[in-house]
Amino acid sequence: MAYETAALFQVTGPRILPPPAGSVRSGQYLKGFKEQVRRRGGDWALMLDANGISTSVVDDPDQTLEWTSAVALLDDCSRRLDDELFGLHLADVQGADVYGLVAALARSAPTLREGLGCISDFLPFLHSPGAEVEVATGALSSELRWFPRADFATFEQANHHGLMLAVRLLEAVGGRGFRPSYAISVSQGRTSQEAIERRLGCKVHWRAANDAIGFSSELLDQPLDSSNPILFGLLASYMLQLKRADGPSLIEQVEAYAAGSFRSGNCSIGGCAARLGLSPRTLQKRLMARGASFSRIVEDQRVEAARRILRDTGWTLDEIADHLGYSEKSSFSRAFKKSAGMTPLAWRSMPQA
Predict the structure, then answer these.
(1) Where does the pLDDT of residue 2 fall: very low under 50, low under 70, confident under 90, or very high at 90 and above?
(2) Residues sharing a CB contact under 8 Å with residue 123, sequence separation 6 or more, in sequence order
(3) Domain map of the chain by residue range?
(4) Using CA atoms, how far apart are residues 99 and 165, in angstroms rounded to an integer?
(5) In which band, very low, low, confident or very high, does the pLDDT at 96 lie, cut at 50, 70 and 90?
(6) Are 120 and 133 in contact (CB under 8 A)?
(7) Cα–Cα distance for residue pair 67/74, rounded to 1 Å
(8) pLDDT surpassing 60 at residue 6
(9) Between 101 and 24, where is the model more confident?
(10) Is 110 helix (H, G, I), strand (E, B) or coil?
(11) What CATH class does 250-349 carry?
């Protein structure tokens, strides 16, 4: 692939943690969820609770959901809200941005062919480990295919959701010239077939062995309007470093969790342990064995974030403290001084290299 030679940049910074096996990023499923349920007169918190999902994940896209809970949630919402297309409606308002860096990388690629290669290589890695995604090319038609887990065909709303997200992703990457030729779904297509086809903009073939979006092969090698060689190289380098790494250390994993969750107010050793598949006690013992502690790591991440904000913005100390999850400005100032050896205002006034 082109990104193998384009990835000549060295990128440093916090690692993005792939979700554990058997889970998906909550942002992929729950962006816009509250608004969609409310619009239909439902109680979004009740919907989540009924499916064993914590309400805290709604506003924290870096948290993860168990795969079975995620797909069951959409079908349950469809029944409770009497909306046969709930999964499709949710995906329609979410768009390609739920795929984050993968979508940005694919859009910056030179051609649709290379963008699709990025999607098949990195989307399972960063969003749904264990999923299979492939690109099948032919003389006239090509397909972006994905293969369901066991019994996925019984979850119609999750299938509708996946089809619409795939169309939105391909439209975002392919640009104005992209049009799906057809779609394939493992779903039984028991209801609203015509409405689904209208929303997707193409014919759907039901009861298949896999899911796919088909399109003209003529589009594969046309330059993308959104192509950006520098961004493509930067993102490709970062993604390859993530994928090729032996795996982040325990402390790096805790650092990544803390950096992504302390602002939401949901940063806890219990939440971190669950993310890593450990008990809180085991996590605590393993950190102690490495001369670290969860609370110290969280404070270090907060102070590092504070340094960036102090350097790059004109925010007041009250605004910074609130953004970083401190109860009051004095707590933030004490923590910063303990780590940096000076007050936040003194640090801000120093010349920055």
Answers:
(1) low
(2) 99, 102, 131, 133
(3) 2-130+148-168+218-241, 250-349
(4) 9
(5) very high
(6) yes
(7) 12
(8) no
(9) 101
(10) coil
(11) mainly alpha
Hunting for tokens 């088909």 — which residue is that? 214
Pinpoint the alpha helices (H) of the chain.
2-6, 26-30, 33-39, 44-50, 67-81, 86-94, 100-107, 112-127, 156-174, 193-200, 229-244, 250-261, 269-276, 280-289, 294-312, 317-323, 329-340, 344-349
**Cα–Cα distance between 261 and 268 in angstroms, integer?**
9
Q: How far is CA 267 from CA 69, 259, 290, 299, in A?
A: 22, 9, 21, 11
Report d(CA 127, CA 132) in Å as an integer: 11
* Residue 83 · residue 77 · CB < 8 Å: yes
Which pair of structure tokens corresponds to residue 337?
A: 């001084």
**325, 335, 320, 334: which is closest to 262 by C-alpha?**
325
Greater confidence, 166 or 324? Answer: 166
DSSP string, 243-305: HHSS---HHHHHHHHHHHHGGGT---HHHHHHHHT--HHHHHHHHHHTT--HHHHHHHHHHHH
CA–CA distance, 134 with 138 (Å, rounded to integer): 13
pTM for the whole thing? 0.71
What is residue 3's predicted lDDT score, i.e. its pLDDT?
A: 58
Least confident interval from 48-57, 78-87, 211-220: 48-57
264-321 tens-digit pLDDT: 667 888 888 877 767 788 888 888 888 889 988 988 888 888 888 888 788 888 888 8
Which two three-digit tokens encode residue 244? 């090729």
Torsion on CA atoms 226, 244, 213, 92, rounded to nearest 10: -70
Say if CB 196 and CB 204 are below 8 A apart. Answer: yes
Q: Which two tokens stand for residue 212?
A: 């796919």
What average pLDDT does the chain have?
85
pLDDT interval class at 243 (50, 70, 90): confident
Structure tokens at 173: 């990457």
From residue 130, how far is each of 20, 148, 163 by CA, in Å? 10, 10, 18
pLDDT at position 117: 94
